[in-house]
Design goal:
Radius of gyration: 20 Å
Order of helices and strands: HHHHHHHHHHHH
Oligomer: single chain
Structural class: mainly alpha
Largest sheet: none
């Protein structure tokens, strides 16, 4: 659900946390006011006043999200559950992709002005610290990427896909594992162009930060938050579109192969998420 981009975590880390796909979502959701500052500390050391402002902002936005957005998630999961049971999911799949993109965009729109204001409060020293840490992390990731052979990357891709599908439907049979290998072979590698994109994004962000206290600079920062792929380039966008269609094709193929046990597992996972969201709404 989530669209994660490590080099921009300082400004959109909240997005990912709201869409955590792991056990303990209720635990983390109710502790965002201290989790996020702690997480950001790896990138920039905030002053006490900045931390207090951020914590108050997170409290306000969490309550907004709890009352305004979580009920939408519950409604979507109810529809998804019904569509899976009836077999209509193949006709409504695109709607769920649009729904989740809409949730993401709504959260960005709600948070962007406040995130820009937080960014504008950074000192020159903090900006340098932030960008140095982002550059260092990107360099380490790129070096690791270059040192990994393509066949090893492919194996890692297959393992990630198997783990993801297993989380939702349980143990995979031989035919499903074969489908995943076929799927992985059709996905286009975006590694090199992604690192180029991230470098352009950091350069654009670095430039915008030099004018972070001006309307023009703040507009540029907000634009990079709302539409980070504006600097992605045609090649990366084409790869993303291609891979998105492959994911759709093979997720639907996998749904057609589910055993009764796997279907129950999937419905139980959806019910667990719905229960978590409902509990958070009632908190």
């Amino acid at each position: 659900m989530t669209i994660q981009n490590k080099q921009s975590r300082f400004i959109i880390v909240l997005i990912g946390i709201f869409f955590i796909q792991a056990c303990g979502i209720k635990f983390w959701y109710n502790r965002l006011d201290w989790v996020v500052p702690w997480y950001l500390d790896d990138y920039v050391e905030l002053t006490s006043q900045q931390e207090d402002t951020l914590e108050k902002l997170l409290e306000i936005k969490t309550e907004w999200h709890r009352s305004n957005e979580l009920p939408k998630y519950v409604s979507m999961l109810n529809r998804m559950e019904a569509d899976i049971k009836s077999g209509a999911i193949h006709q409504t799949y695109d709607r769920y992709r649009r729904d989740m993109r809409g949730f993401y965009n709504t959260l960005l729109a709600e948070m962007s002005d406040d995130l820009v204001a937080q960014t504008a409060s950074l000192s020159d020293e903090q900006v340098k610290q932030l960008m140095d840490n982002l550059d260092k992390e990107a360099k380490e990731q790129y070096e690791e990427f270059k040192e990994t052979k393509e066949e090893d990357r492919q194996e890692e891709r297959i393992e990630r896909l198997e783990e993801s599908f297993s989380e939702w439907i349980g143990s995979l049979n031989d035919d499903q594992q074969a489908l995943i290998k076929e799927m992985a072979s059709l996905l286009k590698s975006s590694g090199e162009v992604t690192y180029q994109y991230r470098s352009r994004w950091r350069d654009a962000f670095r430039t915008a930060l030099t004018e972070r206290t001006t309307p023009a600079g703040q507009a540029a920062i907000k634009s990079l938050i709302i539409d980070p792929y504006q600097v992605g380039g045609e090649e990366l966008n084409a790869i993303r579109d291609h891979n998105g269609e492959i994911y759709k094709e093979y997720q639907l193929k996998m749904l057609r192969t589910l055993s009764a046990k796997q279907k129950r597992h999937l419905l139980e996972e959806i019910a667990d998420y719905r229960e978590d969201f409902e509990d958070l709404i009632d908190d």
